[in-house]
Every structure is written in structure tokens, then in C-alpha cells.
Amino acid sequence: MAYRMLSLFLLAVALAVFAGAPVVAADDKNTHEGKFVSVAKDGKSFAMTNKEGKEEHSHTLSSDFKCFGTDGKECKLGDLTKNQMIRVTTKEDDKKVATKVEALKDK
Fold first, then answer.
1. Domains: count for the chain
2. For 74-96, what is each residue's pLDDT tens digit?
3. Structural Rg of the chain based on CA atoms
4. Most C-beta atoms within 10 A of its C-beta, which of 10, 39, 89, 101?
């Protein structure tokens, strides 16, 4: 009986891992990490660099944009500090439009 329950449990875990894999892979295509630079004066976009602090570029904010601090709680984009490491999620069809910014903890 215990063997049968263990087998069912392992099968359920395997299915969950394989079913979730395509979702994670799709999200990775729409994310990148770098350093936060600043919010535009109009509050509708922000500038960032790559991880090395070079190659500055900007993203406009989507209508459903969300920003999260290092504690995982929602915050304002203006709460981030210059050179803060961030992960940006963009729209699948437009890499210039950010839907989410997550502040990353220093390693």
C-alpha cells in the first residue's frame, strides 16, 4: 500500500514539473536583468542598463504595470534606487513595454 501511494505521489510531482516547464520557459523569453537608472519625469517609462552597468535603454510602462521591492511587496517604481539590480518582464509582442519590474536582492 505504501509503495502504491509513493508511486502516485512521485507521478503527481513529475506531472507538475513537466506541466509547469513550458510556462517558465515562455516567461524567460520576456525577462532580462540589469541595473535600474531612473524613472522618466512623466512617470511613463524608466531607464536601465545591462548587468554590467552599460548599454542603457528604456522601457515604457504597460497599463497593467506592477513593481515589486526586494521584499516581494508591491511598490512604486520611484522607490527603487539607482544601480539596484532588477528583473524586467516585457510584453511578448513588444520588448520595449514593461509589464513588471522586480527588485533583486544583492547576492
1. 1
2. 999 999 999 999 999 999 999 99
3. 18
4. 101
Is 59 domain-assigned?
A: yes
Amino acid at 68: F
Is 99 within a domain? yes
Q: Are 42 and 60 a contacting pair, CB within 8 Å?
A: no
How far lies 14's CA from each of 9, 17, 21, 28, in Å? 9, 5, 11, 21
Kindly report the CATH number assigned to the domain that includes residue 76. 2.40.50
Strands 57-68 and 94-103, sheet pairing: parallel
Q: Which three three-digit cell numbers place residue 107?
A: 547576492
Which residue, among 97, 105, 8, 3, has the nearest Cα to 45 in the 3D structure? 97
Domain assignment of residue 61, given as a range: 31-103
As a residue count, the chain comes to: 107
Phi, psi of 51 (to 5 degrees): -65, -30
